[in-house]
């Protein structure tokens, strides 16, 4: 991670260092910037960080380590059950678990589609919001709606919209003479339909971040290019997109991780059905842990999921870095 | 982008309208359903404007299944999470921004790692840890977990705000003989307030909307948070009363919606740039 | 300015303390709700408070449960019962965490098919010695068998549902179909009526099979399709023609005859009801409990009836998978809890609960009481008649049934009904899936 240098701090358009704030004593001679990191300073840092470190240790680091370890045991949620270290037994069993790999495959399709489609949709919206259009204020408010909705509510809303008998979507289709579709019930449409919902709820966040990135591109670049006669498409391709590359990388990576690990939306929307067509790995693992009560085996699945995410991300990062170099040279 | 071609302009407006319908219609439909009588819903007629406004769905939703109690639970959990997270992360964010070196590397690494691990891997041991601490199925336990899980994001945002405060100001303060704590309190904190407010609001929304951790860690129906209770409204084989369900869903959305309304200028004015650039 | 800030800090700290103490209170009440220490409540001296987690979901049942509990609380000042309302949806997972986290209530409402794993684990108290003689003889041995684990009775069976065919009499009439009146109705008859009433955009049958396993397992008994043999962990699965007769029949009606509304196959029972009210389907197969909802929600002038129970190739038997009341083994008041359940099981009380939910009481005495209550109400003669055919199915004795149901049978049946796989594939998925589930 590089140094964070926000142009101005979020939340205060004026900037905190505005001259005239009462505490600013002007013209005081400066001390040398970075003194030797003294012992005192280290103690001070520790004191500042401890309140945050404590909950993180107890409720995040310890559980995480325990969770990884559980994946190598036969622990269960049965009464008075004892758990033993079983080494790689869970994993050899997992190799032959066709249900898990099917859910894994669905999870990958889902996460990649959600990440890419969200990016494309958000990029379009961000460009429109960045263009000098009317009604900017109200559109920006409306565009944030999906972000504000709790996932459970999102699922409830879209169940209503996708309803095969009383949903507005099918009513709309039938009004223009098309046949209604059983969106969440039909095997071929269930996964795409759920992906659309995830994209819908992910658009605002990505749009906001892309918008922020766009507003950092110096307007002179665009103007100079426009004077040179470059079309808006070319300007987008040669100025906007390259400048946004780091943002795009961050957004797609995060969206991929979050989608792959997401639970609430699909749990309420389809519960993995029909016929397991939307059984994301998180759902499958949840069932293994809290219905089948095989927590050790479920933790092993969790470990495999982490491994997969890390692999995909490293691959993506590698490609990204190489492309970055190619552009620079 | 600057487009002067009127035809392209019109195209942009059409596209924008399409986006707005896509993003906004679901909320509209939820509102509409929340105002329909069960007779109208059962008749399978599809109207955006209800034939008759059935305001009764709202009191009915509040009456049923202890929606009010759940809302109270959610409010308690979210507010306390917000306050505690903010208090705890403020000094840590300051340290992350100001003390470079190992601490910062470790902090950043943890923030990243915490994003990669699926909640399912954490939830099983978390359940066991809370059980051991006798905090399973308590609001207090849930709050502690929420604080922990909102910390990465909060720390990340806050340290961005801290980094934006010029060091000179602090150093000037130190020269006057003030202790570090005094400098923090008198100089850094006031400048940080706008950022704190924004971060706190995000934390509130995160806790208010959360579903999965509550699903596993809260078992007694009287301690259910709003998302848990709403889900039990849906039912599988039981009778689904869509009107009150939609009304409950609308009520659950209002707090987050209000907060996002308040934050929207900050969100869309490009001020998050710092957080993205990192 | 500085002073103001100081005040703000103090105010903030104060608010935090308040909020935290509120949490503490919240957690201590929940502790009381937990079975482990659901002990004496300070307010009433040495009165005992029992928590009763009820799954009652329909307005009438909720009200009836509340009335009975109030009555009990008035009559028993020493043993106060507090209802903890919960929902059927996801209740199995909830119970797993409740028991494991030590937060389970004293009295637990569930069903025979789901309660077994908890009994096997030892979470449920042995109620054998608390059950009164009258009740023992009033409930059939088969039904008692369904709640017996390792020779211990772990639950009181309370209410049973059977699957019934509800019909829109106007649509049947319009299609020139006579409403069958016999004691039972064969599958061929059902198929015939469905075919005859499928016309003018109306489907003969709407069948909510989003969760198809319970229906298939239950109606399968009529063909002697038992799926399982053995008990506990020593279980064999058999998916033969008898077991597959029901899915096959449904599939033929859906595809060959096109007399089942396709959308309904992916909906839950309740979701199909609007189509039934709206005259888009002439008949619908539902749990008997929907009789209450239909009576309440059907539009005015909607004429409906309940058709005779379905008869398979062997009998008109259906699975008895009774709802149950159990007692948490960790409860400090097992005896009081059992006494409270005994009270709920008294004939008129059990009849009242069943009436509210349109279900069939497990005990003969309560069935008689209910027959008196409902002498001239539509559908009830058929509902009670179908109760005669309920027998304890083999799957209730299988420890891993719930797992097989959720992770294997349900998705496989959904795939079959959607035409994704054929009957042979369904057979092998169900058997292979069992060996994966049963591997441990």
TrEMBL record, chain A:
Biased amino acid composition, Low complexity: 20-29
Keywords: Cell membrane, Membrane, Transmembrane, Transmembrane helix, Transport
GO biological process: transmembrane transport
Bilayer-spanning residue ranges: 48-72, 108-129, 141-161, 190-212, 243-269, 297-319
Membrane topology: Multi-pass membrane protein
PROSITE patterns (UniProt xref): ABC_TM1
Superkingdom classification of source: Bacteria
Compartment annotation: Cell membrane
Protein name, as recorded: N-Acetyl-D-glucosamine ABC transport system, permease protein
TrEMBL record, chain B:
Protein name (Swiss-Prot/TrEMBL): Putative transport system integral membrane protein
TM region(s), chain numbering: 12-31, 75-97, 109-133, 139-162, 183-205, 242-263
Main localisation: membrane
Presence of keyword Transport: yes
Residues covered by the ABC transmembrane type-1 domain: 71-263
Subcellular location: Cell membrane
UniProt GO cellular component terms: plasma membrane
Keywords linked to the UniProt accession: Cell membrane, Membrane, Transmembrane, Transmembrane helix, Transport
Membrane topology: Multi-pass membrane protein
Membrane is among the record's keywords: yes
Family statement drawn from the similarity comment of this UniProt entry: Belongs to the binding-protein-dependent transport system permease family.
Native source species: Serinibacter arcticus
GO process terms (BP): transmembrane transport
UniProt superkingdom: Bacteria
TrEMBL record, chain C:
Cited PROSITE patterns: PROKAR_LIPOPROTEIN
Gene Ontology terms: biological process: maltodextrin transmembrane transport; maltose transport
Gene3D superfamilies per record: Periplasmic binding protein-like II
Keyword Nucleus: no
GO CC entries: ATP-binding cassette (ABC) transporter complex, substrate-binding subunit-containing
Keywords, comma-separated and alphabetical: Signal, Transport
Signal peptide: 1-22
Gene Ontology molecular function, alphabetical: maltose binding
SUPFAM superfamilies noted in UniProt: Periplasmic binding protein-like II (SSF53850)
Keyword Kinase: no
Family (UniProt): Belongs to the bacterial solute-binding protein 1 family.
The name this protein goes by in its record: N-Acetyl-D-glucosamine ABC transport system, sugar-binding protein
Source species: Serinibacter arcticus
């Amino acid at each position: 991670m590089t140094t964070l240098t926000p142009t101005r701090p979020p939340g205060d358009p004026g900037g905190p260092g505005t001259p005239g704030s009462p505490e600013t004593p002007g013209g005081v001679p400066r001390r040398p910037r970075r003194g030797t990191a003294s012992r005192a300073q280290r103690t001070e840092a520790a004191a500042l960080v401890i309140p945050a470190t404590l909950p993180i240790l107890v409720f995040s680091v310890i559980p995480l380590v325990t969770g990884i370890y559980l994946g190598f045991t036969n622990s269960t949620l049965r009464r008075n059950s004892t758990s033993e270290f079983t080494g790689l037994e869970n994993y050899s069993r997992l190799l032959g678990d066709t249900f898990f790999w099917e859910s894994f495959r669905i999870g990958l399709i889902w996460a990649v589609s959600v990440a890419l489609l969200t990016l494309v949709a958000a990029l379009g919206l961000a460009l429109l919001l960045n263009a000098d259009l009317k009604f900017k204020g109200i559109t920006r408010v409306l565009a944030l709606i999906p972000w504000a909705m709790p996932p459970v509510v999102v699922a409830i809303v879209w169940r209503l919209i996708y309803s095969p008998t009383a949903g507005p979507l099918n009513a709309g289709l039938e009004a223009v003479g098309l046949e209604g579709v059983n969106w969440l019930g039909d095997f071929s449409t269930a996964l795409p339909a759920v992906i659309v919902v995830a994209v819908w709820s992910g658009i605002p966040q990505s749009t906001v971040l892309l918008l922020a990135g766009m507003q950092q591109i110096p307007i002179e670049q665009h103007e100079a290019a426009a004077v040179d006669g470059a079309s808006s498409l070319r300007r987008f391709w040669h100025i906007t997109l390259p400048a946004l590359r780091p943002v795009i990388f961050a957004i797609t990576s995060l969206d991929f991780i979050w989608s792959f690990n997401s639970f609430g939306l699909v749990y309420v929307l389809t519960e993995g059905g029909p016929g397991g067509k939307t059984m994301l790995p998180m759902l499958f693992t949840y069932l293994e842990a809290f219905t089948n009560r095989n927590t050790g085996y479920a933790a092993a699945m969790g470990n495999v999921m982490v491994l997969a995410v890390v692999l995909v991300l490293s691959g993506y990062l590698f490609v990204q870095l190489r492309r970055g170099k190619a552009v620079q040279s | 982008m600057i487009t002067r071609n009127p035809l392209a302009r019109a195209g942009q407006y059409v596209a924008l309208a399409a986006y707005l319908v896509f993003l906004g219609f679901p909320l509209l439909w939820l509102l509409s359903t929340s105002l329909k009588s069960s007779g109208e819903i059962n008749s399978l007629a599809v109207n955006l404007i209800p034939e008759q406004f059935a305001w009764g769905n709202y009191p009915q939703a509040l009456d049923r299944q202890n929606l009010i109690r759940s809302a109270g639970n959610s409010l308690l959990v979210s507010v306390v999470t917000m306050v505690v997270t903010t208090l705890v992360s403020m000094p840590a964010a300051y340290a992350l921004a100001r003390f470079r070196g190992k601490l910062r590397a470790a902090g950043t690494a943890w923030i990243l790692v915490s994003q990669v691990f699926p909640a399912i891997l954490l939830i099983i041991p978390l359940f066991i840890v809370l059980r051991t601490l006798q905090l399973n199925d308590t609001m207090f336990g849930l709050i502690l977990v929420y604080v922990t899980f909102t910390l990465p994001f909060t720390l990340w945002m806050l340290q961005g705000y801290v980094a934006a405060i010029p060091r000179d100001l602090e150093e000037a303060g130190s020269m006057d003989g003030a202790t570090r704590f005094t400098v923090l309190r008198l100089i850094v904190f006031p400048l940080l307030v706008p950022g704190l407010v924004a971060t706190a609001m995000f934390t509130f929304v995160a806790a208010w909307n959360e579903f999965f951790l509550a699903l596993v860690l809260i078992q007694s129906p009287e301690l259910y948070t709003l998302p848990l209770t709403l889900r039990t409204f849906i039912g599988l084989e039981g009778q689904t009363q869509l009107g009150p369900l939609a009304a409950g869903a609308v009520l659950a959305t209002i707090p987050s919606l209000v907060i996002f309304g308040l934050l929207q200028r900050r969100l869309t004015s490009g001020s998050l740039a710092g957080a993205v650039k990192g | 300015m500085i002073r103001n800030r100081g005040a703000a800090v103090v105010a903030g700290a104060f608010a935090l303390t308040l909020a935290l103490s509120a949490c503490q209170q919240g957690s201590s009440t929940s502790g009381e709700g937990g079975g482990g220490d659901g002990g004496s409540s300070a307010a009433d001296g040495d009165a005992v408070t029992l928590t009763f987690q009820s799954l009652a979901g329909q307005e009438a049942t909720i009200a009836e449960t509340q009335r009975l509990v109030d009555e009990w609380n008035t009559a028993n000042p020493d043993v106060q019962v507090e209802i903890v309302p919960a929902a059927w949806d996801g209740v199995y997972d909830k119970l797993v965490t409740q028991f494991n986290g030590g937060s389970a209530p004293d009295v637990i409402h569930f069903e025979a098919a789901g309660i077994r794993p908890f009994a096997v684990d030892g979470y449920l108290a042995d109620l054998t010695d608390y059950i009164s003689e009258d009740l023992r003889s009033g409930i059939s041995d088969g039904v008692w068998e369904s709640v017996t684990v390792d020779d211990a009775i772990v639950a009181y069976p309370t209410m049973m549902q059977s699957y019934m065919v509800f019909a829109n009499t106007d649509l049947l009439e319009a299609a020139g179909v006579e409403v069958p009146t016999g004691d039972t109705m064969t599958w061929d008859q059902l198929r015939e009526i469905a075919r005859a009433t499928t016309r003018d955009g109306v489907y003969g049958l709407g069948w909510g099979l989003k969760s198809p396993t319970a229906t298939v397992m239950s109606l399968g008994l009529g063909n002697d399709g038992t799926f399982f043999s053995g008990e506990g962990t020593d279980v064999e699965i058999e998916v033969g023609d008898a077991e597959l007769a029901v899915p096959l029949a449904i599939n033929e009606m859906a595809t060959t005859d096109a007399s089942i509304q396709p959308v309904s196959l992916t909906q839950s029972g309740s979701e199909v009801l609007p189509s039934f009210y709206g005259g888009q389907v002439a008949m619908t197969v539902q749990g008997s409990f929907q009789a209450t909802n239909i009576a309440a929600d059907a539009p005015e002038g909607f004429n409906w009836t309940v058709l005779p129970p379905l008869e398979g190739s062997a009998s008109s038997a259906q699975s008895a998978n009774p709802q149950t009341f159990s007692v948490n083994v960790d409860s400090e008041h097992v005896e009081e809890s059992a006494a409270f359940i005994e009270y709920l099981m008294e004939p008129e009380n059990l009849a009242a609960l069943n009436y509210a939910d349109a279900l069939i009481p497990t005990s003969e005495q309560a069935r008689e009481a209910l027959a008196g209550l409902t002498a001239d109400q539509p559908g009830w003669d058929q509902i009670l008649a179908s109760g005669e055919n309920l027998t304890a199915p083999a799957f209730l004795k299988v420890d891993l049934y719930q797992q097989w149901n959720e992770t294997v049978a349900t998705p496989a049946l959904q795939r079959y009904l959607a035409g994704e796989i054929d009957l042979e594939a369904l057979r092998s998925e169900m058997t292979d899936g069992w060996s994966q589930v049963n591997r441990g």
